[in-house]
Structure formats: C-alpha cells, structure tokens
Amino acid sequence: MQDAYAHCQALVREVDRDRYLASLFVPETDRRHLFALYAFNAEIASVRERVREPMAGEIRLQWWRDALAGRAAGEAGGSPVAAALLDTIEQRRLPRADLERLIEARAFDLYNDPMPNRAAFEGYLRATSSLLFALAGRLAGGTGEALNTAAEHAGFAYGITGLLRAFPLHASRGQIFLPHDLLDQFNVRADDVLTGQGSPALAEALRALRGEARSHLQAARERLSSMQPGIQAAFLPLALVDAYLARMEATNYDPFHTPIEVPQWRRQWTLWRAARRLRG
C-alpha cells in the first residue's frame, strides 16, 4: 500500500502542483490520504483530456463508480490510485456517496453543453471544488455544518478562479463554463467566446465573476478563522487565489492569450506564510 500512496503523491505533484505544495504543510498523518483524494480527483477531472469521444469518457467514469462500489475489486487492485483511495475510505471513513457525486459532476466535462444558468454553475462548483474541500476537511478531522459552509465558499472561490484560468483552453475545445444567464446579462455572444473574440462586454462578465470569487474567498476565511489549525491546513490552496486573480486584473490582461501563472517560488512562499500563520 505504501507504493500506491507514493504513486498518488507523484501524480499530484505532476498534475496538480498547487494542491501538492499545499499538502506538504498538513500534518504527516493526514498527508498521504490527501494525496489519495487529490490523485482520484486528478484522474476524474482529466478524463476529457484523455479521450476522443464522450462515450469513452463515460466508460472511464463508470469504472470509477464500479471501483467505489466494490464491483471492480480485481481491476482496482491494479490501479494504485484506486487502491490508495479505497484504503483511505476505509481508514478515514470517507463517504462513498460524496466521491460518487464528484464522479457524476465530471460527466458534464465530457460534452460541449452550455452551462445553462447560475444555479447550474453553482451546482457544478458545489459538486466539484466545494465537495473536494469538504472531503479534505473531513480527512483533517472536521465535521458538521460549519465545515460544509466553509468548504462551499472555499470551493466557489477556488473553482471560479480555476475556471477563469482555464477559460482559453475550454473555449478552444468548444466549452463555455460561464453561465448562459451571465452572458445574457452582459450581452456576450457565445459564438464570440468560442472563436476567441474579446470584447468590453466579456471583460465585464469576467470581472463580475472575479468579484464573486473574492467575496467567497473572504467568506471562507471568516468561517475558517475559528477552526482548528489542522482543519484550516486542509484549505491552504485558498492562499493562492489572490495571486491568480491579481494576474487577471492587470491592465494588459487578455482572457484568451494571457497565461495566468505565478512562479512556483512565489506560490511556495505564499503557502509557507499561510501555514506559518496557522502555527501562531
């Protein structure tokens, strides 16, 4: 099992560097389980990028459903991520239903369907980014409505920021994660987004979303402030949201061509400072 967890750590380090760096500051007893959770998330979140047709993606997601339900026991043993995740579920009593919700939400990624409205957008964030924070908080010993509320705000802040960072990638492959009613509110044409046509209207719509991300970030921080340091450590990826949003608020920002990157040394320093504050 040690090799399975080591595989998860290496995978997260490769494909989800921010969560990897943040996990280095959590207590060692929780760290390997976080890596198992994040490796699972990386696997299901990247299905769209690894298949040519939605049906192939659906088959991959169904395999994960079967693994969680114990219907792919032999095959799951050949997957280090599945083996580590199932061990984490058993040791830390993670609810399988929540992990299944993560899988269900990722089925949306396989298609080019529009995000119909704000309710659907918030539902997607709640079932992906927010739920992942809630599960990470549970691994750190958190429970109850206070944890879920903090996780919802954290997931909205982190998830919106992530979707804005991936905005040009999604548009290039025919996806728009911005809610359709938000586009209508600012008179943004979906065809312009898909063809990479920037406009003042699109800039205003993206600015509005960044404002929402900042509001949720503040709300998450307020709710986390009264929680134990170990639980707060599971939310350390939030410390990077400010830096990414600041990149998008630069005067020369182009949503289709400006890379939203922060040097790794700065991300490490930001996380170190955030973790240091938790230790008082």
Topology record:
Elements: H1 2-15, H2 17-23, H3 28-45, H4 47-50, H5 54-69, H6 73-77, H7 80-92, H8 96-106, H9 118-139, H10 144-165, H11 167-172, H12 180-185, H13 190-194, H14 200-224, H15 229-233, H16 241-248, H17 264-278
Helix pairs in contact: 1-2, 1-3, 1-7, 3-7, 3-9, 5-8, 8-9, 9-10, 10-14, 10-16
Instruction: Note the main sheet.
Output: none
Mean pLDDT: 94
Shape: globular
Query: What is the N-to-C order of secondary-structure elements (H for helix, E for strand)?
Result: HHHHHHHHHHHHHHHHH
Rg result:
19 Å
**How much strand content do the residues show?**
under 5%
User: What structural category arises from helix and sheet content?
Assistant: mainly alpha
Can you tell me the CATH architecture of the largest domain? Answer: Orthogonal Bundle
CATH topology label of the largest domain:
Farnesyl Diphosphate Synthase
Individual helix count = 17
Determine the fraction of residues in helical runs and give it as a percent range. Answer: over 70%
The total tally of domains equals 2
